[in-house]
Amino acid sequence: MFPAAVRAxxxxxxxxxxxxxxxxxxxxxxxxxxxxxxCDVAEIGRRFRSAWIRQEAIDAAxxxxxxxxxxxxxxxxxEIVAEVFAGAPESDAIFIDLWESFARPAAWRxxxxxxxxxxxxRDAGLTVALASNFDGRLFPLARAIEPxxxxxxxxxSAEIGWRKPAAEFFRVVEGRLGLTAPEVxxxxxxxxxxxxxxxxxxxxxxxxxxxxxxxxxxx
Length: 219
Ligand SMILES: [Mg+2]
Known about the structure:
Bound molecules: magnesium ion
CATH architecture of the largest domain: 3-Layer(aba) Sandwich
CATH topology of the largest domain: Rossmann fold
Largest sheet: 5 strands, parallel
Strand content: 5-15%
Shape: globular
Oligomer: single chain
Number of strands: 7
């Protein structure tokens, strides 16, 4: 089912292989409640999306664009939480609570479409890797959660120094895999960060939902 030239399948993590459980807005709502802050879940969801987009725009406008490190990733999430809770004095405590919560395997659950494709990649004898806009918390998570633990390589933006969609991110990953661009396929859920950016880098790139549905239809 995979293109003949492909040697490695590189999976995006969040939204592709796993998702937060409870959902992000619910997790924020619960964390806020632990610190005495009441906020409507739907409002949290709206503010989260706009704060997340604002942080992406900051990275896009930076020179160089989409460079990152562990400090930048921690600052991203601190600022998102502050924006969601409109700068409430408790927002820093809520941020630390959430930062630690999402570091726990119990905060995540596998996504069937991604699991299906990861299993197919393994069965085909291909190298399975993760490539995520994430920080150092992903390394222990990736050892603890299936199907992340199936990956032989874990590539994390904060450690690589670049976030998707930067071309540099893809160059570093293919270099560490010892492969050329046409030998790599990225599977992800984000049309821009995974699929469009992957294709610009010369990789094969599949949307996880479409690819999973197509392969099941074929089976
Ligand atoms: Mg994703």
